[in-house]
Write a structure and sequence with these properties.
Layout: H1 8-14, E1 20-25, E2 34-38, E3 41-47, E4 53-57, E5 71-73, E6 76-78, E7 85-87, E8 92-94, E9 111-112, E10 114-117, E11 120-124, E12 147-157, H2 160-167, H3 172-176, E13 192-196, E14 200-205, E15 215-220, E16 224-230, E17 242-252, E18 255-265, H4 269-298, H5 315-337
Antiparallel strand pairs: 1-11, 2-3, 3-4, 4-9, 5-6, 6-7, 7-8, 10-11, 12-18, 13-14, 14-15, 15-16, 16-17, 17-18
Helix pairs in contact: 1-5
Length: 338
Amino acid sequence: MNAPEDTVEAVLENGLKNLWFPLCPSDFIGKEPISLRRLGKKLVLWRDADGAVHALEDHCPHRGAPLSKGIVLGDRIACGYHGVQIRADGVVTSVPGSPGCKLEGSRAVQSFHVRESNGAVWLYNAQGNIDEPPPLRLPEQLTSGEFSSFLCYTEWNGSYRYVLDNVMDPMHGTYLHKQSHSMALGDQSASFRIRDTETGFVFEKEGQRDVNFDWTEWADTGVHWLRLEIPYPKTGGPGGNFIIVGSFTPISANQAAVFHWRCRKVDGWQRDTWRFLYKNRLEARHWAVLEQDRDMLEFMEADANQREHLYQHDMGVVKLRRHLKSLAKAQLEEAAAQ
């Protein structure tokens, strides 16, 4: 049973408002409109003649037909059912069957601001129609020319919050991924601490650094992202530690869009060497590790996080869950006050 929309659980299930979320890889969207279910909504996305991406709720205001079954007209889309035309800002520009009716000129469809960056389409999950969103602020690994990255995208059955928990749990690498070429070392027991940052916090092992999956950073920069580093042997090529940046989006209560950018700090010939090694040697290994996570999480029961016995290794998970719940509560209180 779905939770009522005015509960903390429902807010978290569908994704917090007024945040940027990655929707899909850029190459998902071509000239024809597509429909994607994300963030508790069904969306239609398309490209105009200049290649710019637009997004609306996939719902014609006339009779509720899916706009994704319509025809692209530049920055407008014409509903395939009765020809009603809606501009990318949600304004109805034409009702061919009844010219001049009240529907024409109204902003009758929720529109969404989108940006393309690092091989992905990002959407600002606004509470309602807004004229201008805040900037999309990503970590330096995705914005600085000193880094080179590859996007790894997949969809998992299960809540996106289980994916968040998984990344906020460095200790699982020591066990679940112990056969990995990059996570075979380090102590099998550890103490952890939490260190606050300007944008979030770091959950890290005490007394162990650059050995295994030793820490995770969570940050809020208008988009929620996590970052971790895994030490690499020299056989892994130039660029120092292997960095993973993750951001996760709910498709539904039981399905998640999972984005991981795999990054190295490289320049010049090192960049070319890293990219060659990744595609020809490392990518398959990384997918194997990710599949271990997927296999574990997809077989967890939907209520597994309601029947837990947590201990010291789980302080990061607890802190993140509490923080997200506090954000959801604040969102509900703000909506109630309006």
